[in-house]
Amino acid sequence: MKIYLIRHGQSVANKNNEWTGQRDLPLSPEGIEEQKRLCALFTYPRAELGFSSPLRRCSDSYRLIYGRAPELLLPELMECSLGVLEGRCYTDLTNDPNYLAWLASPELPLPQGESFRGFTERVCRGFSQLLSRGRGRGITSAAGTMHGNVMRAILHHFAAPEIPHGEWKIPNGGLYKLELDDKGLCRSWSTEPEFLFK
What we know:
Blueprint (H helix, E strand, L loop, with lengths): L1 E6 L4 H4 L13 H13 L7 E4 L3 H11 L5 E2 L23 H8 L11 H21 L4 E6 L1 H12 L15 E6 L5 E5 L8
Parallel strand pairs: 1-4, 2-3, 2-4
Antiparallel strand pairs: 1-5, 5-6
Helix pairs in contact: 5-6
Protein backbone atom coordinates (compact mmCIF):
# COMPACT_ATOMS: atom_id res chain seq x y z
CA MET A 1 0.00 0.00 0.00
CA LYS A 2 1.22 3.51 -0.83
CA ILE A 3 0.52 6.17 1.78
CA TYR A 4 1.11 9.85 1.08
CA LEU A 5 1.61 12.01 4.17
CA ILE A 6 1.08 15.75 3.63
CA ARG A 7 1.64 18.48 6.17
CA HIS A 8 -1.08 21.14 6.40
CA GLY A 9 -0.55 24.66 5.13
CA GLN A 10 0.60 27.49 7.36
CA SER A 11 -1.89 28.12 10.16
CA VAL A 12 -2.57 31.33 12.05
CA ALA A 13 -0.49 29.97 14.95
CA ASN A 14 2.39 28.96 12.64
CA LYS A 15 2.47 32.53 11.35
CA ASN A 16 2.63 33.89 14.91
CA ASN A 17 5.27 31.34 16.06
CA GLU A 18 2.87 29.91 18.63
CA TRP A 19 2.59 26.39 19.93
CA THR A 20 -0.73 25.30 18.48
CA GLY A 21 -1.34 21.86 19.95
CA GLN A 22 -4.97 20.85 19.60
CA ARG A 23 -6.41 24.35 19.27
CA ASP A 24 -8.63 24.23 16.20
CA LEU A 25 -7.21 27.23 14.38
CA PRO A 26 -7.66 27.97 10.65
CA LEU A 27 -5.04 28.38 7.97
CA SER A 28 -3.63 31.89 7.74
CA PRO A 29 -4.56 33.92 4.62
CA GLU A 30 -0.89 33.59 3.61
CA GLY A 31 -1.07 29.84 4.21
CA ILE A 32 -4.09 29.52 1.93
CA GLU A 33 -2.36 31.45 -0.84
CA GLU A 34 0.86 29.47 -0.41
CA GLN A 35 -0.99 26.14 -0.59
CA LYS A 36 -2.78 27.28 -3.75
CA ARG A 37 0.59 28.28 -5.22
CA LEU A 38 2.06 24.86 -4.40
CA CYS A 39 -0.91 23.12 -5.99
CA ALA A 40 -0.31 25.13 -9.16
CA LEU A 41 3.42 24.32 -9.17
CA PHE A 42 3.42 20.66 -8.12
CA THR A 43 1.19 17.67 -8.68
CA TYR A 44 0.06 16.14 -5.41
CA PRO A 45 -0.50 12.39 -5.87
CA ARG A 46 -4.02 11.04 -6.28
CA ALA A 47 -5.10 8.14 -4.08
CA GLU A 48 -8.08 5.87 -3.56
CA LEU A 49 -8.68 6.98 0.03
CA GLY A 50 -8.41 10.45 1.53
CA PHE A 51 -7.95 11.03 5.26
CA SER A 52 -7.11 13.88 7.61
CA SER A 53 -6.76 15.02 11.17
CA PRO A 54 -10.14 16.53 12.10
CA LEU A 55 -8.57 19.88 12.98
CA ARG A 56 -9.41 22.60 10.45
CA ARG A 57 -5.89 23.42 9.36
CA CYS A 58 -5.61 19.84 8.08
CA SER A 59 -9.07 19.23 6.65
CA ASP A 60 -9.03 22.65 4.94
CA SER A 61 -5.61 21.89 3.46
CA TYR A 62 -6.97 18.62 2.07
CA ARG A 63 -9.82 20.52 0.40
CA LEU A 64 -7.40 23.02 -1.13
CA ILE A 65 -5.22 20.22 -2.52
CA TYR A 66 -7.91 17.79 -3.70
CA GLY A 67 -10.99 19.97 -4.15
CA ARG A 68 -13.14 17.85 -1.83
CA ALA A 69 -13.44 16.76 1.78
CA PRO A 70 -11.44 13.75 3.00
CA GLU A 71 -13.37 10.51 3.42
CA LEU A 72 -11.98 9.87 6.88
CA LEU A 73 -11.32 12.25 9.78
CA LEU A 74 -9.05 10.49 12.26
CA PRO A 75 -8.89 11.93 15.81
CA GLU A 76 -5.83 9.76 16.52
CA LEU A 77 -3.91 11.92 14.05
CA MET A 78 -4.50 15.18 15.94
CA GLU A 79 -1.45 17.13 17.07
CA CYS A 80 -0.01 16.59 20.55
CA SER A 81 -2.10 18.20 23.29
CA LEU A 82 0.26 20.77 24.80
CA GLY A 83 -2.02 21.75 27.67
CA VAL A 84 -0.88 24.90 29.46
CA LEU A 85 1.69 25.64 26.72
CA GLU A 86 -0.82 25.96 23.90
CA GLY A 87 -0.90 29.48 22.48
CA ARG A 88 2.50 30.38 23.92
CA CYS A 89 5.19 31.78 21.61
CA TYR A 90 8.17 29.49 21.02
CA THR A 91 10.52 32.19 22.28
CA ASP A 92 8.66 32.48 25.61
CA LEU A 93 9.43 28.92 26.68
CA THR A 94 13.19 29.02 27.30
CA ASN A 95 12.80 29.21 31.07
CA ASP A 96 9.28 27.84 31.44
CA PRO A 97 9.33 25.10 34.14
CA ASN A 98 6.52 23.10 32.50
CA TYR A 99 8.34 23.09 29.16
CA LEU A 100 11.70 22.19 30.71
CA ALA A 101 10.13 19.38 32.75
CA TRP A 102 8.42 18.00 29.63
CA LEU A 103 11.72 18.01 27.70
CA ALA A 104 13.50 16.28 30.57
CA SER A 105 10.78 13.64 31.10
CA PRO A 106 8.76 13.17 27.89
CA GLU A 107 6.99 10.17 29.42
CA LEU A 108 5.21 12.57 31.80
CA PRO A 109 2.23 14.62 30.56
CA LEU A 110 2.14 18.38 30.48
CA PRO A 111 -0.42 19.95 32.84
CA GLN A 112 -3.78 19.65 31.03
CA GLY A 113 -1.97 17.98 28.11
CA GLU A 114 -0.41 14.67 27.18
CA SER A 115 3.02 13.11 27.32
CA PHE A 116 5.17 12.88 24.23
CA ARG A 117 5.19 9.11 24.59
CA GLY A 118 1.40 9.02 24.88
CA PHE A 119 1.12 11.22 21.80
CA THR A 120 3.37 9.01 19.67
CA GLU A 121 1.61 5.84 20.81
CA ARG A 122 -1.77 7.36 19.93
CA VAL A 123 -0.59 8.44 16.48
CA CYS A 124 1.02 5.08 15.67
CA ARG A 125 -2.07 3.23 16.87
CA GLY A 126 -4.29 5.39 14.66
CA PHE A 127 -2.01 4.96 11.65
CA SER A 128 -1.96 1.17 12.14
CA GLN A 129 -5.77 1.19 12.28
CA LEU A 130 -5.85 3.20 9.04
CA LEU A 131 -3.62 0.60 7.36
CA SER A 132 -5.82 -2.25 8.58
CA ARG A 133 -8.94 -0.46 7.41
CA GLY A 134 -7.41 0.17 4.00
CA ARG A 135 -6.29 -3.43 3.59
CA GLY A 136 -9.75 -4.61 4.61
CA ARG A 137 -11.25 -2.52 1.81
CA GLY A 138 -8.67 -3.64 -0.74
CA ILE A 139 -7.23 -0.12 -1.03
CA THR A 140 -3.76 0.22 -2.50
CA SER A 141 -3.20 3.97 -1.98
CA ALA A 142 -4.21 6.66 0.50
CA ALA A 143 -3.32 10.33 0.97
CA GLY A 144 -3.83 12.38 4.09
CA THR A 145 -3.17 15.80 5.59
CA MET A 146 -1.81 16.05 9.10
CA HIS A 147 0.39 17.95 11.51
CA GLY A 148 4.18 18.12 11.34
CA ASN A 149 4.73 16.24 14.60
CA VAL A 150 2.21 13.58 13.60
CA MET A 151 4.13 13.05 10.36
CA ARG A 152 7.41 12.87 12.28
CA ALA A 153 5.98 10.27 14.65
CA ILE A 154 4.77 8.11 11.73
CA LEU A 155 7.99 8.49 9.76
CA HIS A 156 10.19 7.76 12.77
CA HIS A 157 8.19 4.69 13.80
CA PHE A 158 7.26 3.19 10.42
CA ALA A 159 9.90 4.43 7.96
CA ALA A 160 13.29 5.09 9.55
CA PRO A 161 13.63 4.73 13.35
CA GLU A 162 17.30 5.64 13.06
CA ILE A 163 16.31 9.23 12.12
CA PRO A 164 15.38 11.11 15.32
CA HIS A 165 11.88 12.54 15.54
CA GLY A 166 13.02 16.16 15.34
CA GLU A 167 15.32 15.71 12.34
CA TRP A 168 12.63 15.09 9.72
CA LYS A 169 12.37 18.11 7.43
CA ILE A 170 8.67 18.79 6.87
CA PRO A 171 7.65 22.23 5.57
CA ASN A 172 4.02 23.32 5.37
CA GLY A 173 2.58 21.55 2.33
CA GLY A 174 5.48 19.05 2.29
CA LEU A 175 4.91 15.41 1.34
CA TYR A 176 6.43 12.00 2.06
CA LYS A 177 5.49 8.66 0.49
CA LEU A 178 5.56 5.33 2.33
CA GLU A 179 5.25 1.94 0.65
CA LEU A 180 4.11 -0.70 3.10
CA ASP A 181 3.66 -4.44 2.79
CA ASP A 182 0.59 -6.44 3.82
CA LYS A 183 1.84 -6.58 7.42
CA GLY A 184 2.26 -2.81 7.67
CA LEU A 185 6.05 -2.96 7.43
CA CYS A 186 7.68 -0.21 5.42
CA ARG A 187 9.39 -1.41 2.23
CA SER A 188 10.52 2.09 1.23
CA TRP A 189 9.99 5.77 1.96
CA SER A 190 10.78 8.84 -0.08
CA THR A 191 10.03 12.45 -0.82
CA GLU A 192 10.48 14.43 -3.99
CA PRO A 193 12.88 17.41 -3.90
CA GLU A 194 10.08 19.84 -4.73
CA PHE A 195 8.32 18.90 -1.50
CA LEU A 196 11.31 20.00 0.60
CA PHE A 197 11.05 23.52 -0.73
CA LYS A 198 11.90 25.39 2.48
